[in-house]
């Protein structure tokens, strides 16, 4: 996609809301709308596209260009030492009428993920642990294109919402080994709501998702090739295809469904979502005798359950909202074993459940909106409990962690003049490691893989304080279209005196 295409896509998306931009809104009010603090806090509620009808009382659009850079002393090796790159994005929400809304966004990113090890794939959270990897430290350059659009309508007691999104990613490394990965991710989401009474509303939603990724690894130097491993989790690899395969194909599909119950008079919502997905990994470019070009090596079955409760209280002109959120995710990995002989060639021998990962989270948080005539405070404290376990069932190799997170986010927005505002957003989070259990079996683990696992264990088992702030200045030089610049700096201080830092600069306009 060339730069001209990107520009026109951004212009089209942002232009959705131009026609109904509100003439009477001040710069201060436009920036409060642009921040979407309350909507972000209620993201579980707005996950159902039916509720986009109430997302905002106003139409608004944003266009922004941003630069980011991060550098880490302590990190997971598969994620690299940091990311540097640019982003161009546009988003829009438009109230067509009191009972119809449309929204959309488009994003382009061009980044470099620095010094990755043990990972030649894109979208690691979707695939883990099934990646093709090597021990060299190498940077991944990638581009991302994302498009999303939705429509919601209310007719008497019924409400309908639809949303579709598509993401395409391209990544490559310019030094041996040289993987080239292309992924696509499509999601279609729909929701239906029914007003039982003027105050009570019940809603349901469903999601379908389809994902594919193709990764092929080549070498410029044919005499000195790094060994390629088809990883199976916690430092293990496929004995049949590692060193014999130069690529992978990933196929992943899934669904989710859920419901929520809302009372507008009491201002509370309760909801739940249940989802499942299945992933298949195929090894490609196989050099085994009599083998087909590709063979299924692994399957990953994933289940996810969420539950949330929201309650708001009005105090004069201010508002207090509390939320409880529960999430449980589980991944079960299956390894496919093969046999290879002169007579029959490559044949499937058996399948075994080999890998399991669980992640359980409980989170309690609050949002206090304190309004004055020319300023606003948003106070957002939270506490989260997390427990993860990762197990290789055959070898009894496992590790587990229990965390407590304590955090506070503040947002202060102040009117400076009739056409200027200033927003300051300090934030701090403390992660306390309550338990770190390392029962990894290193008997057959290669030394380089052992170093990798021990490095990641240090990251996962170390307390840290994450702190920083964002400073945003807005100036309305053009009527109804304030421009803004935002500068952010965040730092993660580990108990071991190692530091990770992140900085970004964003230029944008909202209208």
Largest sheet: 18 strands, antiparallel, barrel
**Mean model confidence by pLDDT:** 91
The global form is globular
> What are the secondary-structure elements, in order, as H or E?
HHHHEEEHEEEEEEEEEEEEEEEHEEE
Proportion in β-strands = over 45%
Which features would summarize this protein structure in a list?
18-stranded antiparallel barrel, 511 residues, globular, mainly beta, 21 strands
Describe the structure.
By secondary structure, the chain is mainly β. The protein has six helices and 21 strands. It has helices spanning 3-14, 27-35, 37-41, 43-46, 124-127, 447-460; strands spanning 60-72, 82-97, 100-116, 132-133, 138-155, 158-172, 178-195, 200-218, 229-233, 236-237, 247-263, 268-284, 294-315, 318-341, 345-371, 375-392, 397-417, 420-439, 464-478, 481-494, 499-510. The strands form two sheets. The chain has an 18-stranded antiparallel barrel. It is globular and about 80 Å long. It starts with a helix and ends with a strand.
Topology:
Elements: H1 3-14, H2 27-35, H3 37-41, H4 43-46, E1 60-72, E2 82-97, E3 100-116, H5 124-127, E4 132-133, E5 138-155, E6 158-172, E7 178-195, E8 200-218, E9 229-233, E10 236-237, E11 247-263, E12 268-284, E13 294-315, E14 318-341, E15 345-371, E16 375-392, E17 397-417, E18 420-439, H6 447-460, E19 464-478, E20 481-494, E21 499-510
Antiparallel strand pairs: 1-2, 1-21, 2-3, 3-5, 4-9, 5-6, 6-7, 7-8, 8-11, 9-10, 11-12, 12-13, 13-14, 14-15, 15-16, 16-17, 17-18, 18-19, 19-20, 20-21
């Amino acid at each position: 996609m060339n730069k001209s295409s990107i520009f026109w896509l951004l212009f089209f998306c942002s232009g959705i809301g131009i026609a109904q931009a509100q003439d009477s809104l001040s710069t201060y009010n436009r920036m409060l709308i642009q921040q979407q603090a309350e909507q972000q806090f209620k993201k579980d509620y707005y996950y159902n596209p039916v509720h986009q009808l109430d997302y905002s009382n106003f139409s608004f659009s944003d266009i922004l260009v941003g630069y980011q850079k991060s550098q880490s002393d302590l990190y997971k090796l598969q994620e690299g030492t940091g990311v540097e790159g640019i982003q161009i994005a546009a988003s829009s929400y438009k109230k067509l009428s009191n009972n119809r809304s449309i929204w959309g966004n488009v994003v382009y990113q061009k980044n470099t993920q620095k010094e990755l090890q043990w990972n030649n794939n894109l979208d690691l959270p979707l695939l883990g642990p099934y990646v093709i990897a090597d021990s060299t430290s190498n940077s991944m350059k990638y581009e991302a294109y994302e498009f999303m659009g939705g429509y919601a309508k209310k007719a008497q007691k019924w409400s309908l919402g639809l949303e579709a999104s598509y993401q395409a990613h391209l990544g490559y490394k310019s030094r041996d080994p040289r993987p080239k990965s292309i992924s696509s991710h499509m999601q279609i989401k729909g929701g239906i709501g029914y007003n039982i009474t003027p105050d009570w509303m019940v809603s349901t939603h469903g999601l379908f998702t389809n994902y594919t990724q193709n990764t092929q690894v080549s070498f410029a130097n044919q005499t000195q090739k790094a060994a390629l491993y088809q990883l199976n989790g916690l430092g293990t690899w496929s004995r049949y295809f590692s060193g014999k395969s130069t690529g992978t194909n990933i196929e992943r599909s899934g669904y989710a469904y859920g419901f929520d119950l809302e009372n507008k008079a009491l201002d509370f919502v309760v909801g739940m979502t249940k989802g499942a997905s299945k992933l298949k990994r195929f090894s490609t470019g196989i050099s085994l005798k009599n083998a087909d070009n590709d063979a299924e090596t692994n399957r990953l079955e994933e289940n996810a359950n969420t539950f949330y409760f929201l309650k708001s209280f009005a105090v004069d002109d201010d508002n207090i909202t509390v939320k409880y959120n529960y999430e449980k995710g589980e991944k079960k990995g299956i390894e496919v074993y093969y046999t290879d002989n002169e007579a029959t060639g490559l044949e499937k021998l058996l399948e075994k459940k080999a890998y399991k990962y669980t992640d359980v989270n409980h989170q309690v948080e609050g949002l206090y909106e304190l309004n004055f005539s020319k300023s606003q405070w948003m106070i957002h404290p939270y506490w989260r409990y997390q427990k993860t376990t990762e197990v290789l069932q055959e070898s009894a190799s496992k590790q587990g962690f229990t965390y407590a997170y304590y955090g506070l986010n503040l947002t202060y927005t102040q009117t400076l003049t009739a056409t200027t505002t200033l927003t300051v957003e300090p934030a701090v989070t403390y992660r306390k490691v309550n338990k770190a259990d390392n029962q990894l079996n290193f008997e057959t683990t290669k030394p380089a893989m052992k170093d990798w696992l021990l490095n990641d264990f240090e990251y996962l088992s170390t307390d840290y304080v994450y702190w920083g702030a964002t400073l945003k200045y807005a100036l309305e030089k053009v009527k109804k279209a304030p421009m803004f610049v935002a500068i952010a700096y965040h730092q993660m201080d580990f108990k071991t005196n190692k530091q990770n830092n992140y900085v970004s600069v964003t230029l944008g306009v909202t209208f």
